[in-house]
Amino acid sequence: MVFNKAALLSALSLAAAVQAAPAASVGLPCDLYASGNTPCVAAHSTTRSLYSAYNGPLYSVVRASDSHTTNIGVLSTGGVANAATQDSFCAGTTCKIKVIYDQSGRGNHLSLAPPGGAAGADVLADAAAAPITVSGHKVYGVYIAPGMGYRNDQTNGVATGNQAEGMYAVLDGSHYNDQCCFDYGNAETSNTDTGNTHMEAIYFGDNTYWGSGAGPGPWVMADLENGLFSGYNAKQNTGDPTISSRFVTAIVKGDSSNLWALKSGNAQSGGLTTGYSGQRPAGYYPMNKEGAIILGIGGDNSNSAQGTFYEGVMTSGYPSDATENAVQANIVAARYQA
User: Where is the active site (predicted)?
Assistant: First the structure.
């Protein structure tokens, strides 16, 4: 055997480089949050699994022709939604999204929002109104028009009082309005406005009644009840950018200390932008979160807004920036396409 010094040195150099390289984050969003010691307590998506081991239903649909329902699962464990099941079941009629299942195992499923202090009963979303692809496969989002909304007032493990939490959502950056309020997150259990500090939810839209970000909007802001906030100032935070991407990652998180943060990013490429990180607005500390989960509506069932939801989670604890960066990288890797 001929000794080749150059080849040996090359091999040793490669081995050293591999050993020195940081390990890539492995897993889907809720795997990553668990690794960061801020586990998901709610995980909702109509497009894909949010745990690498998840093989259950993502959502259910009810068809107009006979009111029968069926569950829409995944193509494989940890994979994307099996939209063909919906297409077959709903052929020749129409379907609505009845339940969006919680993948965390805590039973925090989302179903039709009941009447609240601001509006009467909502209606279900059209199951076929938001077709896209994820990882090259056809899937459907949750297309919320005014009057539609989902909720769970009896949750398990969701932050209450001044407990820390985080949340993200992947949304359609082109579907919004200036009405109140297209939210996803923590809200009142009574479906009524019980005062400042009783909500902590992602808001997306271009409402300027309470405040705004830079430019014309839309913006990712936080609904903390009786106010949509882009930062400490109740009016404008020029650090919170206008969203121009077709798919947007939106993040809100609040610690048990007087600290909260707001982030956004293009769900198809790149990283996250921190729109705000710092002290809570005046009158919003300590928090009095109640632990209900809402989608597409405000805490008192204000239901005049619109938007499209694809996936989102809520966590126990205040996620680190490193964890959120890994989640954003996974979202980008999922290849959302219109």
Answer: 225 (nucleophile), 300 (proton donor)
Q: Taken in order 294, 298, 299, 301, is the CA torsion positive or negative?
A: negative
Element (DSSP H or E) covering residue 170: strand 165-172
| pTM, 2 dp | 0.93
Domain ranges of the chain: 27-337
Instruction: Summarize pLDDT for 47-90 with one digit per residue, the tens.
Output: 999 999 999 999 999 999 999 999 999 999 999 999 999 999 99
**114 upstream amide cis, omega within 30 of 0:** no
Look up 300 and say whether it is catalytic. yes
| Sign (positive or negative) of CA dihedral 81, 83, 89, 93 | positive
Written as one string, the DSSP assignment of 192-254 is S---TTS-EEEEEE---SS-B-STT--EEEEE-SS-EESSSSSSB-TTSPPP-SSEEEEEEEE
Q: Which of 188, 300, 311, 324 is catalytic?
A: 300
CATH number of 27-337: 2.60.120.200
Sign of CA dihedral 312, 230, 260, 257: negative
Given 172, 225, 240, 290, the catalytic residue: 225
Sheet containing 95-100, strands listed edge to edge, beginning at the edge strand earlier in sequence:
69-72, 59-63, 95-100, 125-126
